[in-house]
Every structure is written in structure tokens, then in C-alpha cells.
Amino acid sequence: MNPTFGSILISVLAGAVQSGTILLLPTLGEVLTERSGVLNLGLEGLMLIGAFFGFLGAMKTGNPYVGLLLGMAAAAVAATIHAFICVTLRGNQTVTGLALTIFGTGLTSFYGDNWVSQRLTTVIQPMAIPGLSRIPFVGPILFSQDLIVYAGYILVALFWFLLFKTKVGVNLRAVGENAKAADAMGVNVVGTRYFWTIVGGALAGAGGAYITCCIHPYWLNGITSGMGWIAVALVVFAMWNPFNALVGAFLFGSIEALQLQLQAAGTYINSALLSMLPYLATFVVIIVATLIVRVRHVGTPKELGIPYAREEK
């Protein structure tokens, strides 16, 4: 392999892992939320809330990890509102999710105007894993990243194990498939849906905060640029499986990193066209995922988006 080409390829793939982590966190959260039967189309709004409050927290404290936690907490609060409307009030989940996106966009634009273009002086730094980071080719790509990327690796394995190998996962999937039967078996349907909706919101906030506390350490209104909508599409691509979510997120991360590398190299391709690549890929992913779901007979959780009330017969 040509040394120059090799270094460029490693740089692109390492960037793909970082960009993919932005998508991985909200996608994992939405997988869990939808497994419980709650549809949250407000990921874009939650990511914006996480990004803004993460930036604000890091700016005020000088600690990007505090900012990340604050972004997660703010998004979790917003997700609690979504859970209250959808689970307790049994509101329309599609409309509520869209309203959450509008709310997050408006809130962060209103309060973020005074912070536009201001930059953080301290950001989340890479921490190479001794030994593993020295593995040829793979090491610099996967094991010379930051703690949030490593946390993403761990969460994928942890959530897969939880979903498919534990009683908690069985109860979670049961609530999303047949809430009435789960309730009859003693599972707290309302509590389960609340908990995983809030967890999903916190992870969406983490994805947003990761943007401003690490990738782009400044504030711009709408800084997530539709990443939340891509995460929603990735849940379908992943077929509600955490490991598939990892593949999909890093695939999109590769597209994002490639288009940025091409723009930096001064390619003759129009920059606007390059910026469209991740969103064009979203359509392709949805089509492919739909076909795979049909062939493999893997469906959405049967009660996704359907409110549940114990008194209903």
C-alpha cells in the first residue's frame, strides 16, 4: 500500500469512527425506546438540546465531560416530557416527536444566538489504548480514539446482551410486542416505557453533546445538521439490533468522513453535492432495510406507537 494513500485511508476511517459515534449513541437509544413500544421522532431536537447544553456546560466549567453529562441530562428531561405525553396522556407519538424536534430547534436557536461561533478552549481528547493502538492499520482507527468512542463500543455489547440474554431484555421486548400480556405477567408497562424513553433521550443528548464537546467545539444554530433524522432511519436499518446499529452508524460515518476529506482535498465535485451524500444514503438505507425486513420477516415491535391503558379490554 502506498504510504501516502495508507495514511489518508487511516485518517478517513478514524474520522468515520468519530462521525459514526455521533450517530451510534442516539441510534442505540432509539432502538431501546422503540423496543419498549414508544416511537420518538424527536431525536433531532434532543440532539440539539444535548449539543447546546453540552457546549454551555463545557464553556462554563471548562470541563467537556461535565458538559457532556449536562447535555445528556437536559435531553433526558426533554425525553421525560415526551414520555409523559405519549405514555401517561396517551398522545399521538408521531406528532409529539415532531413537536419535540421543533421545540429543540427553537429553544437552542433562541438561547444559542448569543453563543454563535464561540469556541471551547478544552475539548474531549483522544486516549490511545496501550498495546491495541499499536496494531497495524486497525489500531490507529479503532483504538486511538477518545473515551466516548470506547463507551460506544461497550454500550453496543452491553445493550445486545441486555436485550437478548437477560430478563430485563425479555420484559422490555415483551412490552413492545404485547403490552397487555406483559402487564398480565407482572411487568410494569408504564415504568418500562418511561425508563427506556428517558434512557434513549439521554443517549441522543450524548450524541449531540459529543459534537460540540469534541468534534466541532463551537456553537452554531442547527449544528446537528439532520443527524437525528438519520439516526431514526438507522434504527430500521439495524432491525432493532445494537450490533447492526454499530455497522450502520459507522457506514454513515464513513460517508461523512469521505465527503469531508474530498472537500478538504479540493475535489472538482460541487461541495453542496458532497454534503448531500449522507442524506442520499439515508434513502438507500431505508429501501435496503425495508427489503431485508420483508425477506427475513423481521418486523417492527408490534405495539410500536400504540398507547396502552390497563383499563382497556
Structure report:
By secondary structure, the protein is mainly α. The chain has a single domain (9-296), classed as Orthogonal Bundle (ABC transporter involved in vitamin B12 uptake, BtuC), CATH 1.10.3470. The protein is 72% helix and 0% strand. It has helices at residues 3-35, 43-61, 64-88, 93-112, 138-142, 147-165, 167-177, 179-184, 189-215, 227-238, 242-264, 271-296. The radius of gyration is 20 Å and the shape is globular.
Percent in strands: under 5%
* H-E string: HHHHHHHHHHHH
The largest sheet is:
none
Instruction: Return the average pLDDT rounded to an integer.
Output: 90
Shape: globular
Given helix and strand content, the structural type is mainly alpha
Give the uncertain stretches in residue-range form. none
Number of strands: 0
Q: Would you identify the CATH architecture?
A: Orthogonal Bundle
Distance between the termini: 66 Å
CATH topology heading: ABC transporter involved in vitamin B12 uptake, BtuC
What portion of residues is helical? over 70%
C-alpha-based Rg, rounded: 20 Å
Under the CATH scheme, which class? Mainly Alpha
Number of domains: 1
How many individual helices? 12
Which terms would index this structure?
mainly alpha; 313 residues; transmembrane transporter activity; ABC transporter involved in vitamin B12 uptake, BtuC; transmembrane helix; cell membrane; ABC transporter permease
